[in-house]
Design a protein that fits this description.
Elements lengths: L3 E8 L3 H14 L2 E8 L1 H9 L5 E4 L5 H9 L5 E15 L6 E3 H8 L19 E4 L5 H11 L9 E2 L3 H10 L3 E6 L9 H7 L2 E3 L1 E3 L14 H6 L5 E8 L6 H10 L1 H9 L3 E2 L12
Parallel strand pairs: 1-2, 1-3, 5-10, 6-7, 6-8
Antiparallel strand pairs: 3-11, 4-8, 4-9, 4-11, 4-12
Helix pairs in contact: 9-10
Length: 281
């Protein structure tokens, strides 16, 4: 039954996509879905505390979290709803917008602190790296999937929201920001279009010698092909032993309608065929 009221926890990097999905779902059902946009860590904590029955996150549950649920007689479901990407953004005036994974790791770990250490002709000075917040899925991804065996530098800056990262980068020529790609992907959203005019999205490659021919931006085609390096899975984690509405909204997200909303938001849908067309850019 898709009626009633629920509160859900959502990784704030997924806010634009989930907002769009909620708007359509509520228009078709006698239901209210109240999202709480927060950090990945808090979203999971709210689910474990049974404050919410549904969390949208950029990872699956850990072994320790699964054990906690099991000890409390819960068996949460993890349903993959999309593939997302981490976008790197720089100031619109920065002439150097191509980077490889190795150099980004050197920046994030503090091995490199000046733009001219990577781009010899750069006059920008110290690299100012900004994330959303310390408990975010982006920080975790940078730790687990980019830096891996080395800790993040203590010099990195944490703000609060992805939107604040975009604003910071747009005002600071020497900055480098990491954000969720769906924030800048929906070209039919006037807010998104305004944001993309403030910054430029970097091209990224695994290649030792990056150039515009081997480096790509996080477009859907390059997420689909796996060519873009920083891809992550988005999950709906459902812990709903009593109610039907959380299940109903989750089913909507994986339905043809829900997956088309995800596709339009710039992410790669998980449960529908994709017609991948490469566009030369």
């Amino acid at each position: 039954m898709n009626s009633g009221y629920i509160k859900i926890a959502v990784d704030q990097t997924m806010a634009p996509t989930i907002k769009a999905a909620i708007n359509v779902f509520e228009s078709e059902n006698v239901a209210i879905v109240e999202p709480f946009y927060t950090s990945e860590r808090e979203a999971i904590d709210l689910l474990m505390a049974d404050t919410v029955r549904l969390a949208i996150t950029a990872r699956r549950l850990t072994s320790a979290e699964k054990k906690y649920f099991s000890e409390h007689k819960f068996q949460p479901e993890e349903i993959r709803i999309a593939l997302d990407a981490i976008a790197l953004i720089v100031h619109s005036s920065n002439p150097d917008s191509i980077i490889n994974v190795q150099n980004l790791k050197r920046i994030l770990t503090g091995e490199v602190t000046q733009w001219n250490e990577i781009y010899p002709d750069s006059k920008l000075g110290k690299i100012q790296v900004v994330f959303d917040n310390t408990n975010s899925s982006i920080v975790r991804y940078a730790n687990d999937s980019i830096c891996r065996d080395r800790p993040l530098s203590a010099e990195l800056n944490a703000l609060n929201l992805n939107e604040e990262v975009v604003d910071y980068v747009s005002q600071n020529p020497a900055s480098l920001g990491l954000i969720g790609v769906n924030l800048i992907s929906d070209d039919r959203d006037s807010t998104v279009v305004e944001m993309t005019t403030k910054v430029q999205v970097m091209r990224v490659t695994w290649d030792e010698h990056p150039d515009r021919f081997n480096a790509v931006q996080p477009y859907q085609y390059y997420i689909y092909s796996g060519q873009y390096p920083f891809i992550r899975e988005i999950y709906a984690i459902l812990n709903d032993p009593r109610g039907e509405l959380p299940k109903g909204f989750t089913r909507f997200l994986t339905s043809d309608r829900g997956q088309r909303i995800i596709l339009r938001s710039g992410l790669l849908p998980s449960a529908m065929p994709v017609n991948a067309v490469k566009i030369t850019d």
